[in-house]
Design a protein that fits this description.
The chain has 285 residues and is α/β, with parallel strands linked by helices. Helix content is 47%, strand content 13%. Bound molecules: 1,4-dihydronicotinamide adenine dinucleotide.
């Protein structure tokens, strides 16, 4: 669907990928509400996008459900009905599973998965209610398709986001709400600084403190894709209502290898025709 004149609500939109998506949407004529936990990044983003842009910013921690509803109220007061949710806020919570403590799991899943869930629960009823249709974009990751080492918590969240996006797509077709799962490969961003966002409540029982300090020093590789290039890909995916938005064909062989291995594990038996019919019904939306 066209995005001109429509309103997008983007979480984690003040840096990196979310800012790239915001730029692309603004250029395409959309109204953009950027919700982010970092107030200084919000101010910077607003300045970057220009005084003439149809942009509103709001400080929001995506784990704060009441705050999410207030942010949505504010967005509607400014621009009217919200059409697009870009559930993009995320943190790079990485480390060996043997070091992962409950604070790491709870913070990582709370932001990376819980933030997307809170966006859906807050905004889906509002998008349905205005009846003009809309689009949900969830920021999963290439790592949902090819998990990398030391990413247990991150991958658990990103694979869940991919699965839930696939699961709701058929259900929402009747409401004229599209769904896209966005699975970027490496992109230049601020994600190595996620550790500074870890709330005090999730610090005492963490096994990842040292890792987060080390990660802060990791330089952003010039080989990683730019956030603006990624933003344009997401915009194209929204316009086409693509279920999958991917960025890096370099991962295609790995994906093929993984899925071939899954298929090769299928029991080699004759297909039970009646059972196939029943399964077809389960899959039919
Ligand atoms: P980034 O750190 O540059 O941007 C993330 C934004 O989310 C920041 O502005 C941050 O302040 C905000 N944020 C973090 N926690 C928040 C919270 N609790 N509530 C509200 N806002 C919060 O990182 P990047 O890389 O742009 O990440 C965006 C999304 O892309 C994330 O979901 C990340 O997992 C995903 N991703 C990034 C990849 C990369 O290579 N950069 C690859 C695959 C996925």
């Amino acid at each position: 669907a066209d995005v001109a004149g429509k309103t997008a609500f983007i979480t984690g939109g003040a840096n990196g990928i979310g800012l790239g998506i915001s730029r692309a949407l603004v250029r395409a004529g959309a109204n953009v509400v950027i919700a982010d936990i970092r107030p200084e990044s919000l101010a910077q983003a607003k300045a970057d996008l220009g005084a003439d842009a149809q942009v509103e910013t709001v400080q929001l921690d995506v784990t704060d459900r009441a705050g999410f509803a207030r942010a949505a109220d504010m967005a509607e007061a400014r621009f009217g009905p919200i059409h697009m949710l870009i559930g993009n806020a995320g943190i790079g919570v990485m480390g060996p599973v043997l070091d992962a403590r409950y604070d790491d799991w709870d913070w990582g899943l709370g932001v990376n998965l819980g933030g997307v869930i809170n966006g859906l629960v807050t905004l889906l009823p509002r998008i349905k209610a205005h009846g003009q249709g809309g689009q949900i974009v969830t920021t999963s990751s290439q790592s949902a398709l090819i998990p990398v080492n030391y990413s247990a918590i991150y991958t658990a969240a990103k694979a869940a986001i991919l699965g839930l996006s696939e699961a709701i797509r058929g259900e929402l077709t009747a409401e004229n709400i599209g769904v896209s799962a966005f699975m970027p490969g490496p992109v230049q961003s601020h994600i190595a600084h996620s550790g500074e966002l870890r709330p005090a409540a999730y610090r005492s029982d963490s096994g990842y403190k040292q890792r987060e300090d080390d990660l802060e020093k990791r330089p952003v590789s010039p080989l990683w894709m730019s956030a603006d290039e990624v933003g344009e890909r997401v915009l194209a995916g929204i316009r086409a209502n693509d279920l999958y938005i991917l960025t890096h064909p370099e991962f295609a062989d790995g994906m093929r290898t993984r899925f071939d291995a899954i298929l090769a594990s299928m029991p080699d038996e004759t297909i039970h025709q009646e059972r196939a019919g029943e399964i077809g019904f389960l899959l039919s939306n």
